[in-house]
Every structure is written in C-alpha cells, then in structure tokens.
TrEMBL record:
Span of domain Hydantoinase/oxoprolinase N-terminal: 9-182
Protein name per the record: Hydantoinase
One Pfam family in the UniProt entry: Hydant_A_N
A cellular component annotation (GO) from this entry: cytosol
Hydantoinase A/oxoprolinase domain boundaries: 209-491
InterPro entries given in the database record: ATPase_NBD (IPR043129), Hydant_A_N (IPR008040), Hydantoinase_A (IPR002821), Oxoprolinase-like (IPR045079)
GO biological process, one term: glutathione metabolic process
C-alpha cells in the first residue's frame, strides 16, 4: 500500500465532528476530535491535522471518509445532467419500478428523478438480449450529439450520461455514442464530461443501471472539485493527497475516486464497519452487529466471517445506487437529533439534527432545542465540563432545553430526558433488527460492537431490546470510523456481466472470465491480491446473492455454495436451475499492519467511574465510565471487563 514505516492517518468528516486517527508503526494509536466546519468540510480536515500535530514527512498516507456525495443527493445540489436513453425508454427514471412510495398513503410520492423533461434525449437505437434490433446510424449519432450539447448549454449541464438498453451485455452503441460526444466536446472546447452506463454498472435491470449512472454524472463534478481543492490545500502544507474511502470498504487514490463519485455515497459509515471488523478479528469474533452513533445519525452494520458484509443496492435520498457497498442502515438518531412533539402530542427524536452549529443546547453555542445529547446531560450520563473537540458541556442549558418537552407533557425534566433516550433507542433497535433478522441472523447469539460518541452510552439499552447479552466497546470508540479509514486497504472493483445458466457454463469458461477480469483490473498493480464473487440466483427470482469463488472452482461447487447460502439467508431452497448474473472482482492490498492486541497499560483503563471508585478492570452496573473520546454506560444487571486491546466487554449477568 504505502510506506509501512510511516504513520497511517484516517480522517472521518461527520456532520458534527471531524475525527482523526493516526496509526503509528510501533502499534500505538493517537486520536483527535474537532468540530466540523459545515460550510467548508476541507477546513475541518486541515484543523484536525493541525490539532494532531503530526509532521507531514512522517505521514505514509491519509485516508479520508467524505459525506460529499450523500449531502449532494440529500440536498439536491449536484450538477445538471443531460441523459441519452434508448428511444421509447426515456421515462424509465419517472416510472421507476411502479411501486408506491408508501403502500397505504396515496399522498406520499417518490423523490423526483435527478434528470427529466427536455434534458432526456431519445437515441434511435435498440439492442435486445438476442442482438441488435435497431442499428445506431451515423445520422442518429449526429442528431443526438447536437441535441445533447445544445441542451447542456441551455441547462448548464456539466455531464452527459448515456444509458442504452441492454448495454450491460452489448456496449457497442454506448461506446460509439460516447466517442462521438467526446470528440465533439473536445472540438468545441466545452467543459463537459461523458459517463456511460457500461462503465459504471454493467448489470441487468434498466432502472437501477440508469439511476446509478445518472447519480454518478450528477455528483462527479462536485466530487472532482472537492477532492482537487482538498488535495491542493493539503499539498500546500506538505501533506500527501488523500486516499478516499468507497462504499465497498476500500480506498482509492484521489484521481480515481473523482471518477467514481457514486461509489462514495457511503464513504464515512463504511470506515466505521471496517474498523469494527478489525476489532472483531482481533478478538476472534466472526459475526457481530455494529452500531455507530454520531452526532447526526446512527449507522448499523453486520460483520460476517470477520469482514463487513458487502451487498449491492441501497440508495441515498430516494436515489438507488446499485453498486457494491458495505451494508449500512442509517437512521436519524444521533446525539444531535432534535426531540419534538408531533401534532398528536407524541414524542419524536429526529430526523432533524442540531449539527455542529449551533449543536445541542448543552454545547452553549446558541442551540436551544432539546436533543438526545441534552437528555443524557440532564440524566448525568454525559458529564458537564470540558470535552474533546473543544466542546464544553453546560447542564443548565441542557435542562432548559429539555424543559420545553417536559412542560407540555406534564412530567419532570428527568422523565422527559428518559423518554427522549427511549424514543431514540426504539428507532435504532428497529434498524438493528432490519440488518440482522431480515437477513436470517439471530441477534441473540452474537455481540453488539458499539462505537461513535454515543454508541457506548446506548449499547446496553439496545442490546436488551434485541435480547443480546454481549457488547464490545472497542478502544478509541469515539473515533473508530477514523481508525477504520486508516486501516482500510487500497482496493479496486470491477463488475463483469455474465447472464448464463449454470448448466450451460463450463468450468473453463468461468475460470477464463474471472482471470480476465482480474488481469484487466490489475494492470500495473501486482502488489494487490484478487478476490472474486459470482452473483447468483434461482432462475425466475428477482434478487441475487454473492457467492465467493476462485478460478479453477467447478461450476457445480459454486452452485452448491449458492444453495447453502440461500438456505441460510432465506430459510429454504428451490428445485430450480441456478443462473449467474455478473462477476465481481476486487484487488486489495493488505490492511495497515497495526497491532490491535497488546498488553493492557494503566492509561488504557479509564478511571472516571460515576461512584468515585478507583481504577479497576471490572465495573458493575449501574455505572458510567468516562472514555477519552466517548462515555460508556454500564446498565443495571451488566458487568464491564477491560480487554487487552484497551476496550471493554460488557455482559449481562
């Protein structure tokens, strides 16, 4: 990857805090937390580096998790796009899958597509699975190019997206149109980029492929500017250009990341699950649920076989992005989530957040509305006084804010605070069930890895709601996402379409496809190790499962693996043929060689326990433990034991 004798730095820019973790070659980890700068995320990165006081020449690499793409899609601030689609299929983004936004609420509507109306250009061509039906002629190409460039000028588009029917199997028409567009753009000196669907997502399903391609085109200009600006500002101080975390759990160099904007949609949360997986492997845990509770949201994940579970699909702001991603279920239940009463008088928490500015009322930065953090301050689980990140907690401000909820409910401030926390816990517990139970995983037999500033506070309550009896609070819990970013390997991904029934595919053909995919992806990257998965399903099914495979495996063995995985996931098997949809290839470097397991030192065991007891390796609930960058609550009936990696294992007694 990089120079393993230097310092690996991970920087996670969140909605409230920017976290930095520095992994030194001797196995030690140093961390820093500063408030984010919402108007200039790059400034938060620079401030974190300044606070960490790292020498630029000692840094091997900087890995960065960014919410740029997430924010662009949520706030609809991306660049205008012109879309070229097969004639007769220009309304695919409007039609979606013809499902309702809410089954029993006819007033609910899906989010508007990112491009529509005159910005969608019909292309006179058609390719069917059996071959070309309508050829793309020279006159048609010329007309589409002229129309697209004229429309781009009118709407101020920075990108032209091309999504033609069945281009996952035969991209010839897309390639021809893309080449013509690029030549015309260069000849006219225009500042336009061209994005083709076979380069972004060469898989079946026209709607998902078109939506993902348009999302890439929509976000790419802003991502390119952000990363270029950040790299320039880092270089001015002697720092290396950052690697960027992808949704799939690996990092890309800046220039390459700028051309894979859609793959960055879950950049930050993926770092947290990656860090949790490293902790799980160090402890010999193969399966676990994870929850990262930050200032703005709570992100839930699943670890399988010591690795973050990677799936296809998902989306942001109602926009599907059908690329591989670390499974993360995000809910608006962070520490900054604002508590409020709806029209029926019911208590809610979120989705609106106080963010970094003004932040929770307890921060005394101008916030007045009650948040989950304020509720904890009222109950004493977050202590008043100075905290990391330049934050000073005011209990008086928190009490005044929570009182605005307590008064209309006719309860005490303490009772209102308990209700706010319970409301947030209920939201997070539902997300944990969706990630586990809906995938055939019984949460009662696995641990919960809780991190982020609020994870250790809510862990016992969440575990009890799901019947879980073990909680792992990792070292550096409050900044574990940044640790995961620093640990994350360099990784490249490639998808290859291969719609074929297993019975019709020879062992040699499968091995040739896998080997060719790795060769195309790995040119000049011999230091990266390949891994492969085949996306498989029963014929006629509407969903697929990823099955691990290596060149040389018999097709029959891969089918057997699929059947076993399907039974584990869905609880049944079918007497039907199996077909393969696509192959996924990754090339990854080794993770950063940090020693996570090390002897306990006195500084690893926080002495601040709420009843004033001296430093101890075992804490019995009800107790509160002040961690360096978070707070851990040991609930009644639970016992916490310090681990050799510096974290804690909580068990229900």
């Amino acid at each position: 990857m990089s120079n393993h004798t230097g310092v690996a730095v991970g920087i996670d820019v969140g909605g409230t805090f920017t976290d930095l973790a520095a992994l030194h070659h001797d196995g030690t980890v140093s961390t820093t937390k500063v408030l984010s700068v919402p108007a200039d995320r790059a400034q938060g990165v620079l401030q974190a580096l300044d606070a960490a006081q790292l020498q630029a020449q000692d840094i091997a690499h900087i890995a960065h998790g960014t919410t740029v793409v997430t924010n662009l899609l949520l706030e609809r601030r991306g660049a205008p796009v012109v879309l070229c689609a097969t004639q007769g299929f220009t309304d695919v983004l409007e039609l979606r899958r013809q499902e309702r936004a809410a089954l029993y609420d006819l007033s609910q509507h899906h989010a508007a597509p990112l491009v529509s109306g005159p910005q969608v250009i019909a292309v006179p061509e058609r390719i069917a699975p059996e071959g070309v039906v309508t050829s793309l002629e020279h006159e048609g190409v010329a007309h589409v190019v002229a129309t697209a460039l004229a429309q781009a000028t009118v709407c101020g588009a920075e990108t032209v997206a091309i999504t033609l029917l069945h281009a996952y199997g035969d991209p010839s028409h897309e390639q021809r149109l893309a080449e013509a567009l690029r030549l015309a753009i260069a000849a006219q000196g225009l500042a336009l980029d061209v994005v083709a669907s076979h380069e972004v997502l060469p898989e079946i399903r026209e709607y998902e492929r078109m939506a993902t391609t348009v999302a890439e085109a929509y976000a790419r200009p802003a991502v390119r500017r952000y990363l270029a600006g950040l790299s320039t500002r880092l270089a001015a101080r002697g720092y290396p250009a950052p690697r960027v975390m992808t949704s799939a759990g690996g990092t890309l160099e800046t220039e390459e990341a700028a051309h894979h904007a859609a793959a960055l949609a879950l950049s930050g949360p993926a770092g947290g699950v990656t860090g949790a997986a490293a902790i799980a492997r160090a402890l010999g845990v193969s399966r676990a649920l994870t929850i990262d509770i930050g200032g703005t949201s709570a992100d839930v994940g699943l670890i399988e076989d010591g690795e973050p579970l990677v799936e296809r699909g998902g989306g942001v702001g109602g926009i599907p992005i059908a690329l591989p991603r670390v499974l993360v279920e995000a809910v608006a239940a962070g520490g900054g989530s604002i508590a409020w009463l709806d029209d029926g008088g019911a208590l809610r928490a979120g989705p609106e957040s106080a963010g970094a500015m003004p932040g929770p009322a307890a921060y005394d930065r101008g916030g007045e509305r009650p948040t989950v953090t304020d509720a904890h301050v009222v109950l004493g689980t977050i202590a008043a006084g100075k905290w990391s990140g330049g934050v000073r907690i005011s209990r008086d401000k928190a009490v005044a804010a929570v009182a605005t909820i307590a008064a209309p409910l006719g309860v005490s401030v303490e009772r209102a605070a308990e209700a706010i926390i319970a409301t947030a816990d209920a939201t997070m517990a539902r997300a944990l069930r969706r990630v586990s139970v809906e995938r055939g995983v019984d949460p009662r037999g696995i641990p919960l890895i809780a991190f982020g500033g609020g994870g250790p506070l809510h862990a016992c309550g969440l575990a009890e709601r799901l019947g879980m009896r073990q909680v792992i609070v990792p070292p550096h819990a409050g900044v574990l996402s940044a640790v995961g970013l620093a640990l994350a390997p360099e990784r490249r991904e490639r998808l290859t379409s291969c719609v074929v029934e297993a019975e019709a595919w020879s062992d040699a053909s499968m091995s040739t496809l896998l080997s060719a995919s790795a060769s195309a992806l790995g040119q000049g990257r011999s230091h990266l190790e390949p891994r492969w998965w085949l996306r498989a399903r029963y014929v006629g099914q509407g969903y697929e499962l990823d099955v691990p495979v290596v060149p040389g495996d018999p097709v029959e063995l891969v089918v057997t693996r699929f059947i076993a995985r399907h039974e584990q996931r869905a609880g049944f098997t079918l007497e039907r043929p199996v077909e393969f949809i696509s192959a996924r290839t990754t090339l990854s470097s080794a993770p950063w060689p940090v020693r996570l397991v090390r002897p306990v030192r006195s500084g690893d065991i926080p002495p601040q326990v709420d009843d004033g007891r001296a430093m101890t390796r075992t804490v019995h609930g009800d107790a509160v433990v002040r961690l360096p960058d978070a707070t851990m609550r040991v609930a009644p009936g639970w016992t916490a034991r310090a681990l050799e990696i510096g974290g804690w294992l909580l068990e229900q007694t």
